[in-house]
Amino acid sequence: MTKRFPDGFLWGGATAANQFEGAYNEDGKGLSTQDVAPKGIKGPITEVPTEDNMKLVGIDFYHRYKEDIKLFAEMGFKVFRLSIAWSRIFPNGDDQAPNEAGLKFYDNVFDELAKYGIEPLVTISHYETPLNLSKKYDGWVSRDLIKFYENYVRTIFTRYKNKVKYWLTFNEINSVLHAPFLSGGIYTDKEKLSKQDLYQAVHHELVASALAVKIGHEINPDFQIGCMVLSMPTYPLTPNPDDVIAVMKAEHMNYFFSDVHVRGVYPGYMKRYFRDNHIEIQFAEGDEEILKHTVDFISFSYYMSSCETADPAQKVAGKGNIMGGVPNPTLKASEWGWQIDPQGLRYVLNQFWDRYQKPLFIVENGLGAVDELVEDEDGNKTVIDDYRINYLNDHLVQVWEAIEDGVEVMGYTSWGCIDLVSASTAELKKRYGYIYVDRHDDGTGTLERYKKKSFYWYKEVIATNGESLK
Asked: What are the record's GO terms for cellular component (predicted)?
């Protein structure tokens, strides 16, 4: 059967400001939490930026955006996912007035995208809380962050109301449970952070997200505003009912976030969890009404699935992923221990659709690998990344299967469409892109861009609207 995707399907790629922009201290930008996390998720956190932090330079998109967007246009992108660096707009987060130079930079980027007919898909907060808000307020533990986020949101919604249609409120918002500093700017050490403070921070983020939806629809009713969660379908390690219940509990912790975003109320299973763990969420007056401003669509990342078990002897965490989980003995893994499960993408698409009947948008999916730059027969530098092509092909076939199942899928933006710095490990050698960037973990390299074999493969996928998939 021909694997043609629906007309208007949004093909593209995804990035994050802190992983590819660079220019961390130029044109009035303040420091973010990323600028003091040189080794990624697992720390340490430094007092000031250090030279070994690859994100300070990234791949220099800040100065090379025209070159990069031209390459995206050559591939045929319909949409490009990027984030706005909050501290580029409000350097300290709690500033009264925005930084005009920061606003102007994104004006220029959006104008360049428009030149090629590429829709921007903008993440408002993507793992880069202004450092001042993290240190001074303990990040989202403080309710004060809602008003700072609101000020930021009003500023960018008003500025870009005629340039951006698609918005995401927070990147992988559920990851705050596992990486509170990275995801929520929470400065308190993870081991010392109480469940009470952690879930109060979650509440503040959920209220802020719903407030963004409310404000956005007031400023421009045509805005499409979505939530963004880290999806990881979970299978029982055995048919033992205890393992099935363990899966249910694990998935509740993820569904909690999308349930509130889509349904506008706290689900009963979380109310039980709060009771059982002596957590009392403080609702301010008006919070319940704000939460009823629900999202237009659900977006998510998908890299892997995992297993769960009630047997402590079998409960060995998988390598490399943020969310934990038990490795699946039937699956192979990437070089970084992320288990490869294309069918899991079809499964999670059906799960979300059956649960919500809201449009879905796959905004991250890809393979991080060590790429080797070689010369082709014409003497051009490239990467023969058949392993990446195979990975992406197999996942996109499963997206098509889900669409055939009746799932409404808006689009697909593969992660790291141009090589960038890894969020989890802060490495450049863990490459995802269709475009190779000559920069390395020791800081060397020319920053030149080279098209990989997958560049031409993805160009053909987009040109045929999926018909070229095998």
From this structure: cytosol
pLDDT tens readout for residues 348-402: 999 999 999 999 999 999 999 999 999 988 899 999 999 999 999 999 999 999 9
3-state secondary structure of 366: coil
* Residue 3 in domain: no
Classify residue 262: in a domain, yes or no. Answer: yes
Q: What angle do CA 163, 165, 166 make, to 5 degrees?
A: 130
Q: Is residue 5 part of a domain?
A: no
For the record, the structure tokens of 124 come out as: 């408002």
Question: Pick the catalytic residue: 364, 372, 401, 404?
Answer: 364
Give catalytic status of residue 427 as yes or no: no
Using left for φ > 0, alpha for ψ between -120 and 50, and beta otherwise, residue 27 falls in left
* Domain count within the chain: 1
Domain presence at residue 78: yes
Q: Which two tokens stand for residue 216?
A: 């956005």
Quick one: average pLDDT of 49-74? 97
Query: Residue 157 belongs to what domain range?
Result: 10-463
pTM: 0.97
The sign of the dihedral angle between the CA atoms of 18, 155, 143, 172 is negative
Q: Can you give the CATH number for the domain in which 385 is found? A: 3.20.20.80
Report how far residue 108's alpha carbon sits from residue 374's, in angstroms, rounded to the nearest whole number: 34
Q: Give the integer Cα–Cα distance in Å for 40 and 182.
A: 8
